[in-house]
TrEMBL record:
Keywords, sorted A to Z: Membrane, Transmembrane, Transmembrane helix
Record's bilayer topology term: Multi-pass membrane protein
Protein name, entry field: Solute carrier family 7 member 13
Organism of this sequence: Alligator mississippiensis
Main location: membrane
Domain of life: Eukaryota
Classification via Pfam families: AA_permease_2
GO cellular component, one term: membrane
Stretches that traverse the bilayer: 73-96, 116-136, 156-185, 197-217, 229-250
Gene for this chain: SLC7A13
Length: 273
């Protein structure tokens, strides 16, 4: 958050000064061809990944104090805060860098720092490393609980539901999740990995929201710690359908579905679960 604040404040200062070259970059920021449906879906995969904390929070509902109050409260406060910060940071990037520089940069924040604060540019990659460590810690913590709950429900081997006797940590579940994550990063293609992850996650989100709608009608009297406004579930299902179907129809390779002809037959290979 400190690094994002530095970038956002510097961007505001540069805009207030109103240099012509800074303002000119913003004027042409969106001058490009209209993307097709698969490109829009891929853009959503890339962007929504940054807002993924809201689903990590749900994994911890069992260990939360008063989840019926704290989960909605956290989502309603954290998401707007993240949105505002990311908006200011992207404005700052466009104030300093051209769209072509942003797309070609391996690490946009570092490229920005080299141009704006070269004397202390090392602060930004250090902050990114700290942020990644925090995000990884959170992901391991939550995904371990996901595998643990799945094992308790009989969806995974019973070994994964075992706890460490000294600290009650689901160590087997966390080791299992870490092994799976380590396999995923072997190709080292972050964009492709994010697309695969986004595709599979939004498929699961769509099915989850659809099941919520079904349960609302089949089990209207079921105890619910907090009740989701039903139109929100319908909107989420519609969004999920678009994000899942658009890449399959227009760009199947982008989500790991490859087609090839073998003799007179067509082989379809799915590389995502």
């Amino acid at each position: 958050m400190v690094a994002l604040s530095v970038i956002a404040i510097d961007g505001i200062v540069l805009l207030v000064r109103g240099r012509k070259e800074n303002l000119a970059r913003l004027e042409n920021a969106f001058s490009s061809e209209v993307p097709d449906a698969s490109q829009i879906a891929e853009a959503f995969f890339q962007g929504l990944y940054a807002y993924g904390g809201w689903w990590s929070l749900n994994y911890m509902a069992e260990e939360m104090k008063n989840p019926s109050r704290n989960i909605p409260l956290t989502v309603m406060t954290a998401l707007p805060a993240v949105t505002v910060f990311y908006l200011l940071v992207n404005i700052s990037y466009l104030t300093v860098l051209t769209p072509k520089e942003i797309v070609s940069s391996v690490a946009v924040a570092v490229t920005w720092a080299d141009k704006v604060i070269p004397a202390v540019a090392w602060i930004i990659p250090l902050s990114v490393a700290v942020s990644i460590f925090g995000a990884l810690n959170s992901s391991m913590f939550t995904l371990g609980r996901l595998s643990y709950a799945g094992s308790q429900s009989g969806h995974l081997p019973v070994l994964i539901s075992m706890l460490n006797v000294h600290c009650c940590t689901p160590a087997p579940a966390m080791i299992f999740s870490t092994i799976i994550a380590s396999i995923f990063i072997i190709p080292s293609d972050l964009i492709a990995l994010t697309n695969y992850f986004g595709f599979s996650v939004w498929l699961m989100i769509g099915l989850t929201c659809a099941s919520l709608i079904v349960l609302r009608y089949r089990e209207p009297n079921l105890h619910r710690p907090y009740k989701v406004f039903l139109p929100v579930a319908f909107v989420m299902v519609a969004i999920s359908l678009f994000l899942v179907l658009a890449p399959i129809i227009w760009s199947p390779k982008g989500v790991g579905i490859m087609k090839g002809n073998i003799g007179s037959k067509t082989l379809i290979c799915k590389t995502v679960n």
